[in-house]
Specification:
globular, 351 residues, Rossmann fold, 2 domains, six-stranded parallel sheet, alpha/beta, four-stranded parallel sheet
């Protein structure tokens, strides 16, 4: 995995499948490249030099460990910032699955540094062409992988474990809008600052921000709560609606909409920008709304604030959609079947 337990992509794309893999008889070893110390430094704006150096030192033992397994499941890349030919040498002849949930290739392809573009610009294309299976988290990434020569490609959305999402009635009292994310993605809240200010001027409103302790919007009452796996679903349950504003750029169009699935799993309607996977996750006018303009955000949030029956109906439909499409009980059997097929084709027997 790219990260440890604190990294959402590693935790959700790979780690949460481990119990299902083990119950299916697939022996699994998790190895994170970047530690939680690295992520804590990243989110707090501190130096990551020591944590990064430690990661590469640990990586020296990764190559031999890889050769003791039948399949590698690589999140994004095996060795960040290392050219493809060196990474491929470290992987060796072990068949590998390449999994990514963001438009990660852009980090290299669109770097402002010419040397990075020259040395790493084609890394992801080469990696997915050599993969036994490429797994993408949404339709945009799926189409991109296919266009770059990946074969085969499986689209597997980033999903929730419904055992950790028990729906509860919407809270009484002040209308509460929820947002969950990291300090890095909290900047997207500024895209809808004006609609939120207008709503706050009309009637009492609270913005509950989970995972970004310093984020705020002037003119809006904000409550900042730390993120933890143990409390995230309960905090979402304290909201009436969840939001996911995004800009219309290449990076955002590659995002996977996981926070929407979290809101919907807690039986809450969601309002989001019509960007990337958001368009597939939300059924507009049934499980939530897709808001294109600031006026759209104002109209849709106001509708959910003023019509409790509408919000409850959307929430019930949202939960049902997650149960049918966006939970481990749906995606884990698909993944296990694919891995078993790979092992059958390659003669694997260990993991």
């Amino acid at each position: 995995m790219r990260y440890g337990a604190l990294g959402a992509s590693s935790r959700l794309r790979i780690a949460q499948y481990v119990p299902y893999l083990q119950r299916a008889g697939l022996q699994t070893t998790l190895r994170g490249f970047l530690s939680d110390t690295y992520l804590k430094a990243l989110y707090s704006g501190k130096s990551r030099v020591i944590a990064s150096a430690a990661a590469y030192l640990r990586a020296f033992g990764a190559a031999s460990a890889a050769r003791r397994h039948d399949i590698l499941w690589i999140e994004k890349e095996y060795l960040p910032w290392i050219p493809y030919w060196l990474e491929r040498r470290a992987i060796g002849s072990t068949p590998y699955i390449l999994d990514f949930d963001d438009a990660w290739s852009q980090r290299y392809e669109q770097s402002r540094y010419l040397l990075v573009r020259l040395m790493l610009g084609n890394k992801f294309r080469n990696l997915l062409r050599g993969a036994t299976l490429t797994i993408t988290a949404n339709e945009n990434l799926y189409k991109w992988a296919q266009s770059q020569g990946a074969n085969p490609v499986l689209m597997l959305p980033t999903v929730v474990d419904l055992d950790h999402y028990t729906p509860c009635p919407a809270p009484s009292g002040i209308f509460t809008i929820g947002w969950i994310g990291t300090p890095l993605t909290a900047a997207y809240l500024s895209l809808i600052a004006e609609p939120l200010r207008r709503l706050a001027a009309e009637a009492p409103l609270k913005l509950l921000i989970i995972g970004a302790p310093d984020a705020n919007i002037q003119g809006v009452t904000c409550e900042n709560m730390p993120w933890s796996a143990a409390t995230e679903s309960a905090l979402i349950g304290q909201c009436h609606v969840g939001i996911m504003p995004l800009p219309d750029d290449d990076w955002a169009n590659g995002k996977s909409g996981y926070k929407l699935i979290q809101y919907m799993a807690m039986q809450r309607p969601a309002v989001a920008s019509p960007i990337g996977a958001n368009n597939q996750i939300i059924v507009h006018g049934q499980t939530g709304y897709l808001a294109q303009t600031p006026e759209d955000w104002l109209i849709y949030l106001r509708a959910l604030r003023d019509n409790q029956a509408l919000a409850e109906a959307f929430g019930a439909a949202a939960r049902a959609r997650v149960e049918q499409n966006y939970c481990l009980k749906v995606t884990a059997p698909i993944l296990i079947n694919k891995i078993r097929t790979i092992m059958s084709n390659t003669g694997g027997h260990r993991a």
